[in-house]
Amino acid sequence: MPSRSRDLILFALVLAFVIAAVATLIPNTSPRNNDLGYSSLCPFAPWSTLVLLAGAAVSWAVRSHLAKPDAPKVRI
After folding, report:
1. Under 8 Å CB-to-CB from 41, ≥6 apart: which residues?
2. What is the dihedral sign for C-alpha 50, 52, 56, 58?
3. What residues contact residue 50 under an 8 Å CB cut-off, 6+ apart?
4. Which of 53, 67, 68 has its CA nearest to residue 15?
5. Contacts of 1 (CB under 8 A, 6+ apart)
6. What are φ and ψ of residue 3, in 5° steps?
7. Phi/psi at 27 (nearest 5 deg)?
8. What does pTM read for this prediction?
9. How many Cβ atoms are within 10 Å of 70's Cβ, its own excluded?
């Protein structure tokens, strides 16, 4: 896979994680309150938000590691 397309895919993954993390905190009518004390789109907020942000951080770290010029080339 060319490095340009790999970088774009990983960046899209980071964006998807961040958008999903923000979406978990959006207020919504729900029969159950989250741990922050209000009804949100995801009743597991803020824990689901933290997990999604951790996934974004890992994806960003992998992307930046593979972008280094001395990174080992992976051949599949």
Report:
1. 23, 24, 25, 26, 27, 28, 30
2. positive
3. none
4. 53
5. 76
6. -65, -30
7. -60, 145
8. 0.82
9. 4
Q: What is the mean pLDDT of the chain?
A: 89
Using alpha carbons only, what angle is made at residue 59 by residues 53 and 60, rounded to the nearest 5 degrees? 90
The distance between the two most distant Cα atoms of the chain, rounded to a whole number of Å, is 52
> Prior bond to 27 cis, omega within 30?
no
- pLDDT category at 53 given cuts 50, 70, 90 is very high
Distance in angstroms (rounded) separating the CA atoms of residues 48 and 64 = 24
> How deeply is 62 buried, as exposed, middle or buried, from its count of CB atoms within 10 A (0-12, 13-18, 19+)?
middle
Phi, psi for residue 28 in degrees, rounded to 5: -155, 155
